[in-house]
Amino acid sequence: MKNQNEAGKILRSIDHLLIRVNIQQAKKSGIDNCTAMHGWILGYLSRHRNEDIYQRDIEKEFSVTRSAVTAVVKKMENCGYIERVEVKHDARLKKLVITDKGEEMYKKIIESFQKTDSIITEGVDEEEYEVFMTVCRKIRDNLHNLL
């Protein structure tokens, strides 16, 4: 029988350790003022560069609150990684656009993430990895359905 109190505890522990390892790897790569969330957002904006992406899209994609995204977007804008650009059809809306500086930082972040992924999956075979990812997606979906 599974211990019902163990899943949340181990996920939280992994989250904290992953953040610490990401910070460590980022510093080794010369990335000091970026967080993992910056990297994920820069990647999302880079992959969707031909679309209009708004703050609400980031909130939905990463399951993050409006206030958290607002703070991250402001910091990223201050760092010069993104710009908020007015759209013609609605002056109240501002789309998020990755800058050249943001693209360069994203490349560094991807390298750092790849190093981290290589470290954390060491000794995990492909089948174990696929099972892990399936379980993680189910847990994420279960949690998302509660909101």
Brief write-up:
The protein has 147 residues and is mainly alpha-helical.
Give structural notes.
A two-stranded antiparallel sheet has the order 1-2. The relative contact order is 0.14. The protein has 147 residues and is mainly alpha-helical. Helix 2 (36-47) packs across helix 5 and helix 3 (55-62) packs across helix 4. A hairpin with a 2-residue loop joins strand 1 (82-87) and strand 2. The protein has helices at residues 6-28, 36-47, 55-62, 66-79, 100-120, 126-146; strands at 82-87, 90-98.
Layout: helices, strands, pairs:
Elements: H1 6-28, H2 36-47, H3 55-62, H4 66-79, E1 82-87, E2 90-98, H5 100-120, H6 126-146
Antiparallel strand pairs: 1-2
